[in-house]
Specification:
- The chain contains 10 helices and 8 strands.
- With 353 residues, the protein is α/β, with parallel strands linked by helices.
- It has one domain: 3-Layer(aba) Sandwich (Arginase, Chain A), CATH 3.40.800.
- It has an 8-stranded parallel sheet, with helices on both faces.
- α4 (86-107) runs parallel beside α5 (137-149) and α7 (219-237) packs parallel to α8 (263-280).
- The structure holds zinc ion.
């Protein structure tokens, strides 16, 4: 497994008091070292090159790319919560380059799986940014693999607590990318969209699958949703690669999200993704864990995710405090949502019939 990391990722620091802090990358690497993850013979660390303008333009409109470069030069924020600067831009390009390097490593036969550390800026669309995101490195990776290796079937599993509106918008009409997002009910969190009825359009109808979860949803119900939706769809779609996007913001102690995953829950989530990739696409998998807004639990969750991807049988890391219990109504609501998805998607997918 390859992990892409560069010291300059730390420049993706959105300023004092901002929940997106640049020290996350170094803290995570330190924790990985303490847990001996980097000593495993199967793990290789690679320093990426920055993504090129050409890489960006496969996804983003030229005028948007020019705008971001100009704002960065002037130190002007893109919006109130998404600042730019030369340092942030440099880090954003290196992080996107990390995703490309993961893809390269897999298709060069150097690795089966990859972790693009700090990757997954899913709120950026073709011609807009926002939600701490400038360039959509998930789509940049997809389009790179499409051009370079002729891939035609991608599955993106977005398990970030927020709906990945940017990634969803980019592929809303595209049947070559099955986008599945498991996130907190958009009526209660940014960006306010990502409802079950948003299933894609035109040729892409049925290829955008949203699983909104009520605040308070914990491990059991989360994994239930994953097994009811992600696993059967992956088996039926048979992607060539799975790209999994999300950091620690579904954790119960996160300050922005209200889902209630535990560290163990993240490990089980990641093991489910790895096992599914083994079944459907010869193990090809790239994890992009960008998010997380409680610095105490972020390294623990990213470690749990990485450990599941690398194939550890168990982890010894535990939550720093007792997780709150899930309300019984959560499971009922999720069952109803899956019922709704079944009705909406049964024409398209045999697994929902
Ligand atoms: Zn998020």
């Amino acid at each position: 497994m390859v992990i892409t990391f560069h010291e300059k990722f730390a420049q993706y620091d959105l300023g004092e008091g901002h929940p997106f802090r640049g020290d996350r990358f170094v803290n995570v690497m330190k924790f990985f070292k303490e847990q001996d993850l980097l000593d495993l013979s199967t793990v290789t660390l690679v320093e990426p090159q920055p993504a090129s303008r050409k890489d960006l333009l496969r996804v983003h409109q030229e005028s948007y790319v020019d705008l971001i470069f100009r704002l960065a030069e002037e130190n002007t924020p893109y919006d109130v919560e998404t600042p730019t600067s030369k340092r942030i831009l440099e880090a954003a390009l290196l992080i996107a380059g990390g995703a490309i390097t993961c893809g390269e490593s897999i298709y060069n036969g150097k690795a089966k799986r990859g972790i693009s550390l700090g990757g997954g800026y899913h709120h950026a669309g073709r011609d807009y940014g926002g939600g701490f995101c400038l360039f959509n490195d998930v789509a940049i990776l997809v389009e790179y693999l499409r051009v370079k290796y002729d891939l035609t079937r991608f599955l993106i599993l977005d398990y970030d607590v927020h709906f990945g509106n940017g990634t969803s918008d980019i592929y809303y009409g595209d049947p070559t990318v099955l986008y599945i997002s498991v996130h907190q009910d958009p009526r209660t969190i940014y960006p306010g969209t990502g409802f079950a009825w948003q299933i894609g359009e035109g040729k892409g109808e049925g290829y955008n699958v949203n699983v909104p979860l009520p605040p308070g949803t914990s491990d059991g119900t989360y994994l239930y949703a994953l097994n009811e939706v992600f696993v059967p769809l992956a088996e039926e779609f048979e992607p060539e690669i799975i790209i999994a996007n999300g950091g620690s913001d579904p954790h119960f102690a996160d300050i922005l999200g209200s889902l209630r995953l535990t560290v163990k829950g993240f490990f089980n989530l990641s093991c489910t993704i790895r096992k599914t990739a083994n079944k459907v696409c010869d193990g090809k998998l790239i994890l992009m864990p960008a998010s997380g807004y409680n610095p105490k639990v972020l390294p623990l969750c990213w470690y749990a995710l990485a450990a599941g991807v690398v194939g550890l049988e168990e982890i010894r890391v535990e939550d720093p405090s007792e997780p709150p219990k899930e309300q019984p109504s959560c499971r009922k609501q999720v069952e109803n949502t899956i019922g709704e998805l079944t009705r909406l998607l049964k024409k398209k997918w045999a697994c929902f019939q």
